[in-house]
Amino acid sequence: MVEAAAVLARCAQHVLGAPLPLRIRAWDGSVSGPVEGPELVVRNRRAVRRLLWQPGELGLARGWVAGDLAIGGDLYEALDRLAGLLWERDGDAGRSFAAARVVEALRAPGTVRDVRELLALVRHPMPPRPPAEEVPHRRGRAHTLGRDRAAISHHYDVGNDFYALVLGPSLVYSCGYWESAPPSFGATLEKAQYDKLNLVCRKLALRPGQRLLDVGCGWGSMAVHAALEHEVHVVGVTLSEEQAALARDRVADMGLSDRIEIRVQDYREVADGPYDAISSIGMAEHVGAQGYLAYARQLYRLLRPEGRLLNHQIARRPLRSEQSYRMNGFIDRYVFPDGELAPVGSTVSLLEEAGFEVRDVEVLREHYALTLRAWVANLEANWHEAVRLTSPGRARVWRLYMAASALGFEHNAMGVNQVLAVKTTPDGVSGIARGRRW
Fold it and tell me: Which InterPro entries match (predicted)?
């Protein structure tokens, strides 16, 4: 009798050019691979069909989201072992296996028997349907007003209760600022998020009575913090109906309706400047490379002279031939449709081309790794409730996305930066004191 795990292990080695660094446990009870460490659990034949029809990252992701594949043991260790063979194998620009390369590997001499046994295991030749959580086929040009609204809705309109469970009471969906790290020394996620919001406000030098525009305001945490702690008037804009509804409730409950206005509005539609300051925290990743200069120019127009912008944005390492980086297959299909990352140098250059003077760049890469691990811990500790609030597939999406992203930040595959920029007066006055006074 042919053991499924052994066949899968041999075929994986043909494609990878090296043994799979995880033990395989197949649906027939067979096991193959390293004795120590985590294992890849192949629960059914459908998982194999997914990988045959979509080799590499997207096939693995679909199997994971559908529950056809699972990880036994430490998820972080498993992803770390796979990263070098899958996500990083094709160099800077490549992020998954090309189907042609898989076919070429499986046609190589000595693989015929293994391929035949693999096809016999699969039985049904047709590709399985993608999980329901996958974004359907998108039409038209990326980053139009309508398509951006649909992309934001896919990611954020999945239930405020689910986000509260993952993010914790702060309801801040960007990296915290862990002033006392490691977090086991007494720091908490809520304290880290408070410190991050406070840092943003200090960099913006907010004063009572000023007007702040919070672009991509989420559930209103930055707006509430700025209004309470710094007595400013805030306009927060988001494209998510669910975010806006909860943000308005929070504002009303705190008696801040006279200071905070929450709008369902695209930043491109804001026309009531000038503002004294603008915060954009974790929003610019949705803008896209083609529209980034227009984004920067719009924010520049909305500021008064000496007004400040704090742009908090995830970045990618520079690539040899591309200025921007489209999110990989899993992230684009399940997490952030149409999201794009760019190197921090490109961001700084475009902000300056729009007219800003960039005054400071602070790297928070390690802070995001700590934040993501805290979010994963929240999700895992409340797994059954998370599944009840959304779906098993959606909970799996979030667990994989956050755990893999934590490793990406830890290994410097991704970064996150706070860029402080100012709209100087015509004669070059910035209003910013020398040195990092915040």
Answer: CFA/CMAS, CMAS, MeTfrase_dom, SAM-dependent_MTases_sf
Q: Can you tell me which residue has the tokens 């015929």?
A: 112
Q: 24 near 71, Cβ under 8 Å?
A: no
| Count of structural domains, the chain | 2
Q: Are residues 34 and 69 in the same domain?
A: yes
What is the span of the domain harbouring residue 95?
A: 4-122
Give the span between the Cα atoms of 342 and 152, in whole angstroms.
19
Provide the whole-model pTM.
0.90
pLDDT, one tens digit per residue, over 339-374 is 889 999 999 999 999 999 999 999 999 999 999 999
Q: What is the CATH number of the domain that holds 190?
A: 3.40.50.150
